[in-house]
Design brief:
Elements lengths: L5 E10 L6 H18 L4 E9 L3 H9 L4 H19 L6 E4 L3 H16 L3 E11 L4 E3 L4 E3 L9 E3 L7 E10 L5 H10 L4 E2 L1 H12 L5 E2 L1 E2 L7 E2 L2 E6 L1 H6 L1 H4 L7 H7 L3 E5 L3 H14 L7 E5 L2 E3 L2 E2 L10 H8 L1 H11 L6 E2 L2 H31 L11 H22 L3 H22 L1 H4 L6 H22 L4 H10 L3 H4 L40
Parallel strand pairs: 1-2, 1-14, 2-3, 9-15, 14-15, 16-18
Antiparallel strand pairs: 4-5, 4-8, 6-7, 8-10, 11-13, 12-13, 16-17
This protein binds 5'-O-[(L-methionyl)-sulphamoyl]adenosine.
Length: 529
């Protein structure tokens, strides 16, 4: 496959104060699916993820656990965050930690440039800070609680915990200079921030006026030192946002930087402002292009609330994968929730979709078709005879699904792309019911027709394996093997996904083998409540 256009996608980098929950895994799976799709379209693809390790939140967690922040971060990265990627089969190309030397070097180069160019000045900061959010707060972001441990105090609306009053000498970034340029960016490039709900919120926020941003702290030292003033460390968000360029060689490897940048950025809508306001302003100040796009996805809700560890609604990804497997995890969240909107998680919904869509819909189809080729043709794929209207209809569904799915992925409408691919599953199941190959198998005179029907169904499975490989890489690899496709067509991930709809790729004569259930039945007693 030749290297095509650059497609660089970055996830947010995750705080290491705690272990991952399914909200974090959700961003990872979406990013992984989209990059697998682009990789299989021949794009010059790069997927970056990583961890955000500086700031007060991590420092305090480490202190509370009687350790140093670096030792704490090392432990969480090695025991929880890297294993998460395996649990949900993420094929990332790089993993950046903000404590990596390459990152610290790039942050210092970037800051020095902004300082030299007059975008940073020293001043006095007086205001509120939420350590949970690692964010400076306006009064609108706070509320006074009437009950509970913090009755009578001002608390952050997101964390329901008291904010801190800060008064210190800080360095400021002249963000207010960029208000008009940001508004122009949103106007000239309407897909820069998506979906529309997030775009509207960002535009009205920026129209309300931008203040300069305090970008340093001097009351603690867990962070990257300000190059010209070692008594200050860089504000954790300013540091963290730079990971997207430090990881691809900003300041040290221009060739790679120019090859990859700008990135498509997937973020939860709660952190869209950092990515669609502060981040492009920082880049503009440094004379760099803004990201290609910032897409703010919705929240996973549990019991109607945003899932979070601090509110004890967190569910570990492994709780799901232990019972249902990584493929089902990936499929469920990508299919059941419109990407860009909030979605509620429930074990019942997961179990129901697993059974109806993966086990009965797709898995059963794959098992039945491969079993029939094995039984009626000793596992040698028959050649099709003349195609009937019904066969041609299958071919059209496969071709349309491929182009519809691709168009949906380009818009990051991941759920729509899966729905498009699923039209093939439905078409093939209906086709087999109507064609009744088991009846055709009974008479010699319908033998040619049987061959055409089984070729059509098997070739449909070939297309499904390719189209579904970005979402269920495990099951589709097994299907690819059962189709005997590798020796004739090459590896599954080497298939060009946008060509999946071209009919007739799996040659007659391919060695088909019987497939074990791709999604075995799960007893209700095995499902956590
Ligand atoms: N460290 C910052 C990001 C810095 S990026 C330069 C951060 N980390 S986080 O660990 O708190 O969150 C990381 C991502 O997980 C965010 O995109 C956030 O929206 C996402 N999610 C956290 N909880 C979530 C849900 N309940 N549902 C969906 N996504 C959620 O913020």
């Amino acid at each position: 496959m030749s290297a095509g256009e650059s497609f660089y996608l970055a996830t947010p980098i995750f705080y290491v104060n705690d272990v991952p929950h399914i909200g974090h895994a959700y961003t990872e799976v979406a990013a992984d699916l989209v990059t697998r799709w682009h990789r299989q379209s021949g794009d010059d693809t790069w997927l970056l993820t990583g961890t955000d390790e500086h700031g007060q939140k991590i420092l305090r967690t480490a202190v509370a656990n009687d350790t140093t922040p670096k030792a704490w971060a090392d432990r969480l990265v090695n025991e929880s965050w890297l294993p998460l990627l395996e649990t949900i089969t993420i094929a990332n190309d790089d993993f950046i930690r903000t404590t990596d030397e390459r990152h610290e070097t790039a942050v210092k180069i970037f800051l020095q440039k902004l300082y030299d160019d007059g975008y940073i000045y020293s001043g006095e900061y007086e205001g509120y800070y939420c350590v949970g959010c690692e964010e400076y707060k306006q009064l609108d972001d706070l509320m006074e609680t009437e009950t509970g441990d913090y009755a009578g105090q001002l608390v952050c609306k997101i964390h329901s915990r008291p904010i801190e009053v800060l008064k210190e000498k800080n360095y400021f970034f002249r963000m207010s200079d960029f208000q008009q340029r940001l508004l122009d960016l949103y106007e000239e490039n309407p897909t820069f921030v998506q979906p529309e709900s997030v775009r509207n919120e960002i535009i009205s926020f920026v129209k309300g006026g931008l203040s300069d941003l305090s970008i340093s702290r001097s009351s603690f030292d867990w962070g990257i030192q300000i190059p010209w003033d070692p008594t200050h460390v860089v504000y954790v968000w300013f540091d963290a946002l730079l990971n997207y360029i430090s990881a691809i060689g900003y300041g040290t490897d221009d060739e790679n930087f120019n090859r990859r940048w700008p990135a498509t950025q997937l973020v939860g809508k709660d952190i869209a402002r950092f990515h669609a306001v502060i981040w492009p302003a920082m880049l503009m100040a440094a004379g760099l292009q803004p990201p290609k796009q910032v897409f703010g996805h919705g929240w996973l809700l549990v019991g109607g609330e945003k899932m979070s560890k601090s509110k004890l609604t967190g569910i570990a990804p492994q709780q799901i994968t232990d019972t249902f497997g990584a493929d089902a995890f990936r499929y469920y969240f990508m299919r059941a929730i419109s990407f860009g909107q909030d979605g509620s998680f429930s074990w019942e919904d997961l179990s129901a979709r697993y059974q109806a869509e993966l086990a009965n819909g797709f898995g059963n189809l794959a098992s039945r078709v491969t079993a029939m080729v094995t039984r009626y043709y000793d596992g040698v794929l028959p050649a099709p005879a003349e195609y009937s209207e019904a066969d041609l209809a299958v071919q059209k569904v496969v071709a349309d699904a491929t182009s519809d799915a691709d168009a949906a992925i380009q818009r990051l409408a991941i759920h729509e792309s899966l729905a498009a691919i699923w039209t093939i599953v439905e078409e093939l199941n209906g086709y087999i019911t109507i064609q009744e190959p088991w009846v055709l198998a009974k008479a010699d005179e319908t033998r040619a027709r049987l061959g055409t029907v089984l070729y059509t169904a098997t070739e449909g499975l070939r297309a499904l394996a390719v189209l579904l490989s970005p979402v269920i890489p495990g099951a589709t690899a097994k299907l690819w093997a059962a189709l005997g496709a590798e020796p004739v067509l090459g590896g599954l991930t080497a298939q060009v996904i946008t060509d999946a709809g071209t009919w007739g790729q799996l040659p007659a004569g391919s060695a088909i083998s019987k497939l074990e259930a791709l999604f075995p039945r799960i007893e209700q007693d095995d499902v956590p409540a």
